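Long-time lurker, first post. I've been practising inverse folding by hand and with some scripts of my own, and I keep getting stuck on stretches where the structure tokens seem ambiguous. Below is the full token string for one chain I'm working on. Before anyone asks, I'm not after the true native sequence, just a reasonable design that respects the backbone. If someone could post their per-position residues I'd love to compare against what I wrote down in my notebook.
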């Protein structure tokens, strides 16, 4: 089994986890953001090079104004507290998603984190914020069409050429996609990028997804037989 380079996670279950403890949903999101640090460190120690986390989807705007407001403030809280450490650990922060729709201060904080860590190479910690995969693919198709009209691209295109228009163009394909909290859905996440990924659905809510659970997922991944549509020799 080849090395697992890129892990993507749908961090689900913050709200249910908080409710089960008699706490507000925001407490679940706060615990979830603390866990981003824990799991990024664990992933790096396990040799993962790219970790792509779903922090806010294009559908999450439908939540209450209070909850959306809280989720928009979390990046500032998180980076204020941990940016120095993340940089020292050699982590590079990258954001995917449509940032222009975010509150200006949220966007500024996230772009600063990207800039300040741009020289790092140890772990690419990718945060999907206002991200939706169908939108990403539609935007890529538009950008491609414009390049064709401008004479910068030929109209016949191969998958390898099309990928260059995606927000993830600097990342390798996803090897392993994990969703926490028991749901078995993809929820418009990285649809193109998971074409050959292994999928794992774990019962733990995101705040209780420990480094041991990540290790268990990787052990399972290394026991699977990825054939990419071929036949084992
Ligand atoms: C899904 O759980 C989780 C989210 C929509 C938010 C995820 C965000 C974080 C974990 C924090 C991100 C941190 C940074 C630093 C950007 P849910 O609320 O849908 O849970 P539920 O299904 O139990 O209600």
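-- Answer (accepted) --
I ran through it position by position. Result:
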């Amino acid at each position: 089994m080849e090395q697992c380079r890129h892990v993507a996670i749908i961090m689900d279950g913050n709200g249910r986890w908080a409710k089960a403890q008699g706490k507000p949903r925001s407490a679940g999101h706060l615990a979830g953001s603390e866990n981003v640090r824990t799991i990024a460190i664990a992933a790096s120690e396990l040799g993962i090079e790219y970790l792509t986390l779903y922090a806010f989807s294009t559908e999450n705007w439908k939540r209450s104004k209070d909850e959306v407001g809280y989720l928009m403030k979390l990046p500032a809280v998180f980076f204020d507290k941990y940016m120095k450490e993340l940089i020292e650990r050699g982590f590079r922060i990258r954001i995917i998603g449509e940032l222009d729709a975010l509150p200006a201060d949220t966007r500024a904080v996230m772009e600063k984190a990207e800039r300040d860590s741009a020289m790092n190479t140890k772990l690419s910690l990718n945060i999907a914020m206002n991200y939706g995969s169908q939108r990403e693919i539609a935007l890529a198709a538009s950008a491609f069409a414009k390049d064709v009209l401008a004479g910068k691209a030929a109209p016949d295109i191969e998958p390898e050429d099309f990928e260059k228009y995606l927000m993830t163009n600097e990342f390798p394909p996803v090897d392993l996609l994990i969703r926490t909290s028991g749901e078995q859905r993809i929820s418009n996440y990285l649809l193109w990028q998971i074409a050959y990924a292994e999928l794992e659905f774990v019962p733990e809510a995101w705040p209780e997804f420990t480094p041991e659970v990540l290790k268990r997922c990787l052990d399972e991944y290394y026991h699977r037989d990825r054939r990419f549509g071929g036949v084992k020799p």
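A couple of notes from the structure itself: The pocket of farnesyl diphosphate is lined by residues 11-16, 29, 32-33, 36, 55, 60, 71, 74-75, 78, 127, 206 (CB under 6 Å). The chain has seven helices and six strands. Happy to go over any region you disagree with.
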